[in-house]
Amino acid sequence: MKKQTKAIRTQTKQSQNREHSVPLYLTSSFTFESAEQGKALFEETEEGNIYSRFSNPNVTEFVDKVCMLENAEEGIATGTGMAAVFASMAALLKSGDHIVACRALFGSAHQVITQILSKWGITHTYVDASATEAEWEAAIQPTTRMVYLETPSNPGLELVDLEMLARLKAKYGFILNVDNCFATPILQTPIDLGADLSVHSATKYMDGQGRVLGGIVVGRADLIQSIRFFARHTGPSLSPFNAWVLSKSLETLDLRMERHCRNALQLAEALDAHADVERTLYPFLPSHPQYDLARQQMSAGGAIVTIELAGGFERVKAFFDALTIPSLSSNLGDSRTIVTNPNTTTHAKLKPDEKAALGITPGLIRISVGLEAIEDLIADFTQAIETSAEVVKEQVA
């Protein structure tokens, strides 16, 4: 069966009630048929549920689906995307280890690397997404244990060549850990390109409607075993209800991403052609500096478009005020189009030089393109660009 079919038909074994939709297993713990079974479950000589902090049928179903979509051996779900990112690092790194990371990272991932892991004696080196293979190799040290990156990145939509890093991994033996949130397993499967781990904020496209929080790490069985031990004893568990929602949402992920990507490409083309837009970034626009790489390792360009307007934050405020359809939120991956100003929201805690290195300017706007009629979105963004330009002119006058 194809993945689209498996995402719909993979589910927890039917109970004696013969339900068609998987029930919610809202229980903190599970019973044992005998003392001997309890012993076997804790010794892990028998598979089964003990406690929902460890495992739960709803969570297991969600993990199984993502592993199938990502071609991963095993996985573990967490309560949030950042819990998944943190667990994928904290479970596998120790004092004295070194991590190489792409400079273009989500703000919280940057804080974990620079402010939390550093307290444990874990050092880091940042590399530009556009760095050559030789530049990535130069950052690797004898103590380098992991290379971590997002591709495409947040919010600049920079890409990293995964096959190139897989060649370096084969040479130096580090763990290649990829945040695949923006692409989703529908557009990109990092494990097939040589990654060891693929991490997601399931809050985003896997949910797709801005309802629940969740995260997941999938990949090599030996690495997931270490991450599972860490998560079981530190407790970033995914709730059964959230897992149920996310598993049901995976049934439509392929369809939603098709519409998201089609809308995003058409909106990006319209904005790129507008004379008052300073720059438009979208991986499948020929003007994107890594367009060829995007076509090579992604099946479509994703649902995020980033633009820059002249006039700084005052222009951004006027632009947001003029929009009538999009929501203003720091979230993304929703069926509803969302806009945010990374400089003052998702990446606000970065230092000015760090923002400059990532191209995060006061006039930068990240657009999470939703599922609305594309004609409506283009018309609304066009009028907001023109209205905001007039507002700023009047303010200056």
User: Order of strands across the widest beta sheet?
Assistant: 1-7-6-5-4-2-3
Helix content: 40-55%
DSSP summary: helix tally: 15
Mean pLDDT: 96
Number of strands: 12
Q: What is the overall silhouette?
A: globular
Q: What is the SS-derived class? A: alpha/beta
Low-confidence region ranges: none
Order of helices and strands: HHHEHEHEHEHEHEEHHHEHEHEEHEH
Q: Strand share of the residues?
A: 5-15%
Radius of gyration: 22 Å
Write up this protein.
It contains 15 helices and twelve strands. It has 397 residues and is an alpha/beta fold. The strands form two sheets. Strands 1-7-6-5-4-2-3 form a seven-stranded mixed beta sheet, with helices on both faces. The longest helix has 23 residues. The mean pLDDT is 96.
Helices and strands in order:
Elements: H1 3-9, H2 35-43, H3 57-70, E1 74-78, H4 81-90, E2 98-102, H5 107-116, E3 123-127, H6 133-139, E4 144-150, H7 162-172, E5 175-179, H8 184-187, E6 197-201, E7 215-219, H9 221-234, H10 240-250, H11 253-272, E8 277-281, H12 291-297, E9 304-309, H13 312-322, E10 327-328, E11 338-340, H14 352-358, E12 364-368, H15 374-396
Parallel strand pairs: 2-3, 2-4, 4-5, 5-6, 10-11
Antiparallel strand pairs: 1-7, 6-7, 8-9, 9-12, 11-12
Helix pairs in contact: 3-10, 11-15, 13-15
How is this structure best summarized?
The chain is an alpha/beta fold.
